[in-house]
């Protein structure tokens, strides 16, 4: 049951937002915060993502049955179990933020609404990929607030970079569903621009994201190690777009998971090395 649930919500994809939350946390604390704060931030991340993904599966339950790529999802977990998991994870997220600080708790319903609201974005806007980007961009801001209890420019810049990065890779991923989305009347940057136009947009978004990561380094007063890591991030981004141009499902999945996992790893290693080693 647990293994099916983890497959159902693609738990492994937690690695996309987590490195940016951890990086923001380390920079905000100028090192490592207390074990208590680290534990609470990780719990909040896991519960928020679990709530968001199960909600997404519930919202798309019938649509997924008609999509060859996703038609087997509903067999992994019952709809009742998905609803219970979503409700429990949402409540757990709100409870965890209450143990962080008053600002995190006050903003937690907003963060949860953004995370859950993405699931319906493709029903009414072609900017659904940016809505997903906004949902993931909450992570570094939330981690920063968990440590400091106050807003700052650096995490907002990082959030903008994460938003652009996410919108870019989700645009690539959405090319797989171009025909299904058109048939179902769903909207995305791919149905708006077509596959060639969407892939060009993804390149622009990832260049913007990379510039944002560099700007974050300056705003957060990071050193040379971070900027070397930021420079290296261009390599997996380029690799992702080379794979995306092939157009096959296997290549797109490889671009989606492997390349973006490397982006996150380089970012978090660069921030950790800057704050803990240099």
Question: Would you write up a description of this structure?
Answer:
The radius of gyration is 18 Å and the shape is globular. The chain has 13 helices and no strands. It has one domain: Tetracycline Repressor, domain 2. With 278 residues, it is an all-alpha fold. The protein starts with a helix and ends with a helix. Helix 6 (102-117) runs antiparallel to helix 7, helix 10 (189-219) runs antiparallel to helix 11 and helix 12 runs antiparallel to helix 13.
Q: What is the architecture at the second tier of CATH?
A: Orthogonal Bundle
Q: Which ranges are low-confidence, i.e. pLDDT below 50, for 5 or more consecutive residues?
A: none
> How many beta-strand elements?
0
- Tell me the overall shape: globular
Work out the helicity level.
Answer: over 70%
Can you describe this structure in just a few lines?
This protein is mainly alpha-helical. Helices cover 78% and strands 0% of the residues.
Any chance you could write out the topology, listing elements then pairs?
Layout: H1 2-8, H2 18-29, H3 35-59, H4 61-65, H5 79-98, H6 102-117, H7 128-148, H8 153-174, H9 178-184, H10 189-219, H11 224-232, H12 234-246, H13 249-277
Helix pairs in contact: 2-7, 2-13, 3-5, 3-6, 5-6, 6-7, 7-8, 8-10, 8-13, 9-10, 10-11, 10-12, 11-13, 12-13
């Amino acid at each position: 049951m647990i293994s099916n649930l983890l497959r159902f919500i693609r738990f492994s994809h937690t690695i996309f937002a987590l490195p940016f939350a951890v990086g923001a946390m380390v920079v905000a604390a100028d090192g490592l915060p207390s074990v208590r704060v680290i534990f609470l931030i990780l719990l909040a991340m896991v519960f928020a993502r679990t709530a968001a993904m199960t909600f997404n599966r519930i919202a798309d339950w019938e649509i997924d049955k008609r999509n060859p790529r996703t038609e087997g999802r509903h067999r992994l977990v019952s709809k009742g179990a998905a609803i219970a998991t979503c409700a429990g994870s949402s409540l757990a997220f709100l409870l965890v933020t209450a143990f962080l600080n008053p600002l995190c708790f006050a903003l937690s319903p907003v963060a949860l609404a953004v995370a859950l609201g993405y699931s319906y974005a493709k029903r009414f806007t072609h900017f659904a990929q940016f809505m997903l980007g906004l949902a993931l961009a909450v992570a570094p801001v939330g981690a920063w607030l968990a440590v400091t209890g106050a807003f700052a420019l650096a995490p907002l810049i990082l959030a903008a970079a994460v938003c652009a990065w996410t919108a870019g890779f989700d645009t690539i991923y959405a090319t797989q569903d171009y025909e299904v989305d058109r048939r179902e009347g769903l909207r995305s940057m791919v149905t708006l621009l077509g596959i060639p136009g969407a892939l060009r947009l993804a390149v622009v978004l990832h260049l913007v994201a990379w510039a944002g990561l560099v700007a974050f380094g300056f705003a957060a007063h990071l050193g040379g190690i971070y900027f070397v890591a930021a420079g290296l991030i261009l390599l997996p981004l380029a690799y992702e777009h080379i794979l995306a141009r092939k157009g096959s499902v296997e290549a797109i999945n490889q671009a989606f998971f492997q390349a973006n996992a490397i982006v996150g790893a380089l970012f978090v290693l660069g921030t950790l090395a800057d704050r803990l080693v240099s």
